[in-house]
Amino acid sequence: MRSMVFALSLLTAGSVGFVAQRTTAAPPLNDATIIAIFDAANTYDIEASQLALQKSKNADVRALATQFMNDHKAVRQQGRDLAKQLKVTPTPPKANPLAPAHIAAMKALRGKSGAAFDQAYAANEVAFHQQVLDAVSSTLLPAIQNAQLKAFIEKVGPAFQGHLEAAKQLQKKLGTT
C-alpha cells in the first residue's frame, strides 16, 4: 500500500492547473520532470498531514493524517530510490503548477481551527487525491518513457484510490459530504 501512494501524492491540489497548463504552451513532460512532480506532491501532502496532526484534536482526522503522512513519506523515498537506480535527476518544471495551489491550501488550512479545520482538511484530501488520480491517468502516465517508472506509477495507483476513499469516509464521519 505504501508503495502505491507515491504517484498518488504526486499532484496535490495543483494537478488541475498542471493539466490545464500542459494543454497550452508547457514543454513536453519527461521522466525527470514527472519524478520531480511526484516528489513535490508527496511532500505537499506530507506537509498538509503534519499540519493536521498539529491542529486537529479529532481522533479520526489524526489517524488519517498519520496514515497519509507515513504512506507519502514511504512512497516519496521509493520514488527517490528509483530515480537514483535509473540515474535520473529529478528536474522540476520551470513553473511548478503544484506550488501555488499548495500554498493557497496550506494558507486556508492554517486559518481554520476545530471542526472547521477538520472539515477543510478532509475536503482538501479528497480534492487532492482525485486530482492526482485524474492527472496520472490523463497526463503523466501517457508521458512516461521508462518502463520501470511506468510500472511503479501503475503499482501505486490502487493505494491512491484507497486514500481517496478513506478521505471521503472521513468527510462522511465529519458530516461534510
Helix-strand layout with pairing:
Elements: H1 6-9, H2 15-22, H3 31-55, H4 59-86, H5 98-110, H6 114-143, H7 147-174
Helix pairs in contact: 2-6, 3-4, 3-5, 3-6, 4-7, 5-6, 6-7
Shape: elongated
Extended strand count? 0
Helix/strand-derived category reads mainly alpha
CATH topology descriptor? Ferritin
List the secondary-structure elements in sequence, H or E.
HHHHHHH
The fraction of residues assigned to DSSP E strands is under 5%
| Name given to the CATH architecture | Up-down Bundle
Intertermini distance:
25 Å
CATH class reads Mainly Alpha
Give a quick summary of the entry.
This protein has seven helices and no strands. It has 177 residues and is an all-alpha fold.
What does this structure look like?
The chain has a single domain (2-174), classed as Ferritin, CATH 1.20.1260. By secondary structure, the chain is an all-alpha fold. Helix 3 packs antiparallel against helix 4 (59-86) and helix 6 runs antiparallel to helix 7 (147-174). The two termini are 25 Å apart. The protein has helices at 6-9, 15-22, 31-55, 59-86, 98-110, 114-143, 147-174. Helix content is 77%, strand content 0%.
Attribute tags:
single chain; 177 residues; mainly alpha; Ferritin; 77% helix; elongated; disordered N terminus
